[in-house]
Amino acid sequence: MMGTMAPGGGTSALSGGGGRLAATADGTLDLDALLRVCIHCGLCLSNCPTYLVTGDEADSPRGRLMVLGELERSAGVAAPVTAPSPLGSSSSEDAARLRVAGDSLVLREPLDRCLGCLHCETVCPSGVSYGALLDAARQELGPPPGFHARLVVWLVDHVLSRPRRLLPVARIGYKLAHGFLARLLPSSLRRLVGSVPARKPDRPPSLDLPEHGDVALLAGCAQQVYGSGVLPAVARLVEAVGLTPGLPPKQSCCGALSYHAGSVKTAKALARRLIDAMDGETTILVPSAGCSAHMRRYGELFADDPQYAEKAARVAAATVDVVEWLDRHSEALRFKADRRRIVYHPPCHHTHAQGIVDEPLRLLARVPDIELLELRDADRCCGSAGAYSMLHPELAEAIRAEKLERLAEGEPDLILTANPGCELFIESGIEAAGGSTPIRHLVEYLAERLD
Ligand code: SF4
Ligand code: SF4
C-alpha cells in the first residue's frame, strides 16, 4: 500500500526533480507513481559514486529506489493506509509508520549512505525524480540513528551553522587534529576529529559595507570561519561591476546543512531568520553552491506556512548564485594575465542541482593566458556533500580518492571550486596524501586577478 506526500512541509524539497513530479488531484504527491517512473535500466549505476566504490546494488540509485518502495510497503503492512493522507506533517500517521518501518527494518541505511549529489537524476533517461523521493524519505525518517550521527547532527545544528560559536570550537578541533592528543580520545571522538578540515580557522571578516546596496551579500556560516576571504572577494567583484554591495544585518545560516542531515526543524528555524533578514532585497548573491541551491527552494520549503510562504518565495526568487551572476556581468570585468595551470572542480549543487555548468568556465576563460585543464569525470561528486563526509567518513574518503586522482592528472598549479564544503574536503585530502597543490574559491581567485 502506497502513501502520498504533500508538497511543502516534510516533502518540501520535492521540486529537486525539475517539475517532473506526479501530483494527485488533492495536491499531494503520489509516491507510487514517482517510483514507477524507474524502468530499472541501470544506466544510472555507472554514475553513482557510492555504487562505484562499494559495487553493491543497495548503494546504487536503482537499489535505493527499491528500498524506498520496500519502506513504503513495510509502512503499509505495519498499518494499512485506507485513504490518501499526506506524509507532510510530523503528526501524520503515514509519516509515523514510515519512520517505524525505517527504524525497525534497518532499511534506511542505503538511503543514509546516499550523497544526494543528484548525478543519477541528471543521467536518468526515464526522468526519475530521485532527489524528490530521497528528500521526502529523509524528511520523514529524520536524522540518521547512532551516537556518531547524532553528534554530527548536533554539531551541524548548534555549532557549524553559527560562526561565533564555530570559531573557538574550530580552533580546538584544529589543535586536536594536528597534535598527538587526538590519539588519546575515545574512538567516537577520534573519528569526528578526523573530519576536522586541514585549514586553520580564521576570524569572520569585518566589512565596512552599507546594510543595503544594489545587491545583498549572503554572509554565510562556516564559510566565514574557513573561507574568510570569500565575502570580501564578492564585495570587490560587485564593486568592479560598478554596483554597491550591501550586507543586510541579522543574517543566519541558510539551513542547508541541517536540512540535508534530516534536521528539518532546525533548518526551517534558521531559514526563517535569514528570510526575515533578506526579505525586500531584489538580488541576493550567494557564494556557495550548496546554499544557493537550498535558498532557491525556500518557496517550496515554506509553501504550507501561511506566515512565511510569500516572503520565502520572494527571497527564493531574489537568490542568485554568485558565479551565475558574475557570468552575466562578465563584460564589465577585466583580469590580469595568469600563466598557471588551473583545474576547476564543479560542485554537484551547481552541476546537478542548478544546471550551472558553463558559467565558471566562461569566467575563467576571460583571464588572459590561463591554461585551463580538463577534468575527467568532472561532474562526479568529491564526497563532501554537506555533512556527509562527517557522517560517513570512510565512504566519503574513498569517493574523494578518485576525485584527487583526476584532479592531479594535469599536474595543476592551482585547483578552484565554488563550494566551501568541496574546497575544504579536497584540501584535507591533498594534505593527508602529502600533496601541496593549493585549492581556492573561484571568487577569491577572480577578485585577486582583477585588473
Ligand atoms: S537510470 Fe533512471 S530508470 Fe534507469 S535504473 Fe536508474 S533511476 Fe531507474
Ligand atoms: S544522489 Fe548520488 S549517491 Fe545518491 S543515488 Fe544518486 S548518484 Fe548515487
Average pLDDT, to the nearest integer? 86
| Strand elements, count | 10
Please give the largest β-sheet.
Answer: 4 strands, parallel
Distance between the termini: 63 Å
Radius of gyration: 21 Å
Observed structural traits:
binds iron/sulfur cluster, alpha/beta, 4-stranded parallel beta sheet, disordered N terminus, Rossmann fold, globular, 451 residues, 48% helix
Q: Your description of this structure?
A:
By secondary structure, this protein is α/β, with parallel strands linked by helices. Among the domains are: 4-141, no CATH class; 334-448, Rossmann fold. It has helices at 31-36, 49-54, 61-78, 93-104, 109-112, 119-123, 130-141, 147-160, 163-177, 187-193, 222-226, 230-241, 256-260, 264-278, 289-295, 298-301, 309-318, 322-328, 348-351, 358-365, 388-391, 393-408, 420-432, 442-448; strands spanning 4-5, 29-30, 215-217, 245-246, 284-286, 319-321, 341-344, 371-373, 414-417, 439-441. The strands form three sheets. The protein has a four-stranded parallel beta sheet. A four-stranded parallel beta sheet has the order 8-7-9-10, sandwiched between helices. α23 links the parallel β9 and β10. α3 (61-78) crosses α4 (93-104), α12 (230-241) crosses α24 (442-448) and α18 packs across α20 (358-365). The chain starts with a strand and ends with a helix. Mean pLDDT is 86; it is low at 1-27 and 76-100. Residues 48-50, 61, 64, 114-120, 130 line the site of one iron/sulfur cluster. One iron/sulfur cluster binds at residues 48-50, 61, 64, 114-120, 130.
